[in-house]
């Protein structure tokens, strides 16, 4: 469905991509205004304030909430939108930008992303909800990562150098060098089984971490979640498997299994953190469920 976009609120993350998001915002918002769109800028001092600003905006007379930032900012906006039905526009300005990849939005051209918003094409997409053992439920749009995945994300988020996507492979090398398997108990819909794994990832979209296709067959609007499991193996073999995640060819290795379902429960020993859209959500065990068509993107 297509409808005119006349008025938007733009949630801007000034820290996105270590400050480069401000430049992307200036370019994109100028392009929107040039197309006659009225833009109100929202900048929170911290994630909590940004979430509240976005929530308040969804109750006002706007045609869309626009996010200028990365995947973490999009997740924050998804929480703010809730069940309001307000469409979400995206100006990619983060490190990973995997929501944008899944939606076909240019990751390096803010003006082109703004043109997509102004065009007003509305498309329903799935989101997922995580309920961890140690905290409240949280929504996400791309991939939930546990085991090695989560440890890599945690290390990458804490790295001050290098900037950008290069942090992820360097963090992965560091974690692979000291990896130990986790014993998982997994339920996919009505099927329960156990595995010794180095990671388990649940994808609503194919990629995370800036294009790593960990769940390469995931589709953002099919009403299902994809699960990728990687069994423990010789360290050298794991080092060789990791680069193939960028192309999705890791699924050709015998250590990799894939499943698909609408409800996935993960638990492991020792317990491990779970991340989604680059943010730490809590610790396992956790239940992850899909919400088909729950959000409308301008894409």
Automatic annotation (TrEMBL):
It comes from the Bacteria. It comes from Williamsia marianensis. This is Diacylglycerol kinase. Transmembrane segments: none annotated. One of its GO terms (cellular component) is plasma membrane. GO terms for molecular function: ATP binding; ATP-dependent diacylglycerol kinase activity; metal ion binding. Coiled coil: none annotated. InterPro entries: ATP-NAD_kinase_N (IPR017438), Diacylglycerol/lipid_kinase (IPR005218), Diacylglycerol_kinase_cat_dom (IPR001206), Lipid_Phosphate_FormReg (IPR050187), NAD/diacylglycerol_kinase_sf (IPR016064), YegS/DAGK_C (IPR045540). Pfam families: DAGK_cat, YegS_C. NCBIfam families: PRK11914.1, YegS/Rv2252/BmrU family lipid kinase. Keywords: ATP-binding, Kinase, Lipid biosynthesis, Lipid metabolism, Magnesium, Metal-binding, Nucleotide-binding, Phospholipid biosynthesis, Phospholipid metabolism, Transferase. Belongs to the diacylglycerol/lipid kinase family. Residues 3-134 form the DAGKc domain. Its cofactor is Mg(2+).
